[in-house]
Amino acid sequence: MKHNFEEHKQNRIDNARKQAAKNSRLSDDYYVRAKQMASAIPFGQPILVGHHSEKRDRSYRNKIHNAYGKAFETMDKASYYEEKAESIASNNAIFSDDPEALTKLKNELKALEQAQQFMKDANKLLKKNDREEFLKLPYATEKMWDELTNPAPHIRNIGFASYKFSNNGANIRRIKQRIEQLERLQQRPAQEVLFEGGSIIENKEANRIQILFDAKPDEAIRKMLKGAGFRWSPTENAWQRHLNANGIYAAKSVLKQLSTIQNAK
Questions:
Q1: DSSP 3-state assignment of 151?
Q2: How would you classify the pairing of strands 208-213 and 198-203?
Q3: DSSP 201-236
Q4: pLDDT tens readout for residues 181-234
Q5: How far, in Å, CA of 74 to CA of 11, rounded?
Q6: Helix crossing, 54-90 with 5-39: angle to 10°?
Q7: 79-89: pLDDT as tens digits
Q8: At what angle do helices 101-127 and 162-187 cross, to 10 degrees?
Q9: Among candidate residues 227, 226, 232, the one with its CA nearest the CA of residue 210
């Protein structure tokens, strides 16, 4: 199956928006129904306790209460899916599914390293009070000079604070680690392991490690798969999770558990 990262992302956005529209319509329907039902009861009309109509009246009012409850519940769902669609659309995080992930990560690493070097050079010139040389640095501006040389009262030193170096350095190490992991995965030949009743494959195109069964696994095995982080994909007809070191380890763990279950039969 051909995998397209951007198409998959757009499908997720479209599905979220469809769910938002569906729940919005349901909310309107429930609200109108509840309002119409409530209008049949005269304003201020109490339940006639002991009257032959008491049971029917209470049941009717419960239906009104439930209809209003469903209206607000589906309204909340509509808001959730609207926010989800916006979140997916505006998410600029780099995912391993993205075929351009390695290039994007390397570009991000370059930008972070340039920022780290800029802060080092800037702080040296700030300590020397060398405004002229500071303004020759890439990214440096007059406004930045003024802000760095006139820090807020609670900041003791001029220049970029040490925590900015620490945070940026941590991000550099994290991105380097992701690049190394992706490069190792790309260089590693795709593995396929057969077991009684199915197979485990490393689907590099989908960036998923997948477990395929010849027949639907029983409830105990499905529960075990979910516990190991695998989720059923109808489009792939497989149980899968991201293809990374954790995913490979989880697949090996599942294989051992499947072997134990089969030997016990």
A1: coil
A2: antiparallel
A3: EEETTTTEEEEEESS---HHHHHHHHHTT-EEETTT
A4: 888 877 888 789 999 899 999 988 888 899 999 999 999 999 999 999 999 998
A5: 22
A6: 160
A7: 888 888 887 77
A8: 160
A9: 232
Alpha helices in 100-244 (DSSP H): 101-127, 131-134, 142-149, 162-187, 219-227
- In this structure, the strands spanning 208-213 and 238-242 are antiparallel
The CA distance from 174 to 181, in Å, is: 11
Q: Over 50: is that where the pLDDT of 1 sits?
A: no
- State the Rg of the chain over Cα: 30
Residue type (1 letter), 213: F
Burial class (CB in 10 A: 0-12, 13-18, 19+), 146: exposed
Q: For residue 69, what are its two tokens?
A: 């409850």
Prediction pTM value = 0.53
| Among 95, 87, 90, CA closest to 208 | 95
Q: Would you kindly state where each structural domain of the chain is located, as residue ranges?
A: 5-90, 101-186, 192-264
Residue 178 neighbours by CB under 8 Å, 6+ apart: 105
Q: Kindly report the CA angle at 201 between 199 and 206, in degrees rounded to 5?
A: 140
The continuous run of DSSP H or E covering 262 comes out as: helix 245-264
**Burial category of 26 from C-beta neighbours within 10 Å (exposed 0-12, middle 13-18, buried 19 and up):** middle
Tens digits of per-residue pLDDT, 234-254?
888 999 998 888 899 999 999
For residue 208, what are the β-bridge partners? 203, 242
The predicted model gives 18-41 an average pLDDT of 89
CB atoms within 10 A of CB 206: 21
